[in-house]
Design a protein that fits this description.
The chain is α+β, with helices and mostly antiparallel strands and about 260 residues long. The protein has one domain. About 45% of the residues lie in helices and about 15% in strands. The chain has 10 helices and 6 strands. It has helices at about 1-20, 25-30, 50-70, 75-100, 120-130, 140-145, 145-150, 170-175, 225, 240-250; strands spanning about 160-165, 180-185, 190-195, 200-205, 215-220, 230-235. The chain has a 6-stranded antiparallel beta sheet. A hairpin with a 7-residue loop joins strand 4 and strand 5 (about 215-220). Helix 2 runs parallel beside helix 4 and helix 3 packs antiparallel against helix 4 (about 75-100).
Length: about 260
């Protein structure tokens, strides 16, 4: 119930973000310390289906409002402003949706539709959060792809960063230097989200290692991220084309190559 209330509060604050791009810095900082600031690795967290439904409804409501404004914009500059506001909103709503899944059990074949309903695999967790945020995706097809293909569905190849054999300390330093945003990260046999903020980053994923559930781990606790030899990542919320396609409801098809 508390988490649902907080999502409602943050949704109201989202209105301020959507009211004007000139407040972007202040709103981004506020959103970045919302529900996503909770350390999801704390095992006291539980799945919250009610909060998830509230967040889904807010995402769709704001997407439709932005789509209406985007279509009504009289010039390219005005459309760019709407796209920028969409990026701010996505940077807040995606971590909120992730948070609702905390504690949902992991299973290699898990395909849960909502938090706590059943186990969920890592790919299905990523695909379901994105679907619930309003991205037009085929959840089943997307979830079954290799991690790099999941990332490539949204992020252009030049915007992807691949690291193989990099020491975790060096990788973590690199991630800490990134701007605030929500990123998809693919590992050897795993996929999840990175949420970067000025004070550090969190790795949010459905973990096939202890505690075998959806967790949000800080840099020092992200053992799956630490142990992977292969890491590829790209930002969802910094790409104007991703935000534009989300606004207009354009389908994200799997990459052809």
């Amino acid at each position: 119930m508390k988490r649902a209330f907080r999502i409602l509060s943050i949704a109201l604050l989202a209105g301020a973000a959507l009211a004007g791009w000139r407040f972007r810095g202040e709103i981004s900082a506020l959103f970045g310390r919302g529900l996503a600031a909770i350390e999801i690795g704390n095992r006291r967290n539980r799945p919250d289906p009610r909060a998830n439904e509230i967040a889904k409804a807010e995402a769709e409501r704001w997407r439709k409002d932005l789509a209406k404004r985007y279509r009504a914009a009289g010039d390219e500059a005005s459309r760019r402003e709407v796209v920028k506001e969409a990026s701010v909103f996505l940077d807040s709503i995606l971590p909120d949706l992730m948070t609702c899944w905390l504690g949902t059990p992991w299973d290699f074949n898990g395909t849960a539709e909502g938090p706590g309903e059943a186990p969920i695999a890592c790919g299905y967790f990523v695909a379901t959060v994105l679907r619930d945020a309003g991205f037009q995706v085929d959840r089943y097809q997307l979830a079954r792809q290799p991690s790099q293909s999941i990332l490539r569905t949204f992020v252009r190849r030049p915007a992807m960063t691949l690291r193989v054999g990099m020491k975790y300390e060096d990788f973590a330093k690199e991630i800490r230097s990134l701007p605030a945003g929500v990123w998809i990260v693919g590992l050897d046999t795993h996929v999840g989200f990175l949420v970067t903020r000025p004070d550090g980053f969190h790795f949010v994923h459905s973990s096939g290692s202890e505690p075998w559930c959806v967790v949000d781990e800080t840099e020092t606790r992200a053992n799956v991220l630490r142990k992977s030899n292969y890491r590829v990542y790209g930002c969802l919320t910094s790409d104007p084309e991703v935000a534009r396609r989300w606004i207009v409801g354009e389908k994200f098809d799997l990459p052809r190559s």
